[in-house]
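Example (one chain per record):
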Amino acid sequence: MDTQNPSAPSRARSRVAAKNHPNRDPEAEPGGGLLHDHTRHTTRFTVIGNHLSQHPELSLLAIGLATHLQSLPQGACADIKFLADRFPEGRDRIAAALRELEAHGYLRRERRRIPGGRIVTRTVSCNQPKQHRTAPARRAAPPAHDTPRSEKPSLRAVPQPACPSPGLLQKATDLLAGLRRIDSRLPLSARDTGHLAPGVAAWLERDVTPTAVRDALTADLPPDGPRHPAAFLAHRLTDLLPPPPPPFRPLGAAPPAVLHPFQDCDGCTRVFRAPEPGRCRDCRAAP
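Predicted structure:
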């Protein structure tokens, strides 16, 4: 009964051997190294993968920043200025950490156009690294004479004439159609001409001669010509619109009468026009 079994181990082995735990130093003294005092979370927690928390290439700042971003609610602000105000690291270090996360697939930044035309940057935090494809190399630009026009921007509204008569609009249309004869870099489609014609008519309606309108539209063009001729002309028609002419008065005619404000008569409370308060004409004539 007192005979011991020499083949039995002196004590039970640990379930996880030291050779299976890469972060454990097998030569460390018993009781040394990292210990965990865990409490199970039931609310307000975020699951972070070891592929991020133990990433072999990311900096500690990038790992911490990714952890913070994954813990934020949907729609939270996550731009560089906000993060620099939130943490003691400066903008440069935070920007570098964001680039690290973007390069390893933990972050995406997308530019979107919102209603109203403004462009904003949307930050997408990924809890699993996404594989990004390398952007294809840009093709060499074709020769200048074969360069296609890029997508046309929406044309801005142009001034409108007070009396858009058919004859005035036809005169404006002919003026625009003849611009390509003056400068071949100003080709206009029929649709663009119809959009711009009211703006030219508004100039002609203000006693601006057709020659003066052509000079205003074709003077000081960019060396290579405008990228979008119709948008360029719409801009000039709107921003360079001259003021309306003064009312016509024949030479030698008397100037128009001055219209004085209404006054209450001090004698009979009658309303009359005069430059200053006082009595009306009948009260001044009465004894």
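Caption: DSSP finds ten helices and four strands in the chain.
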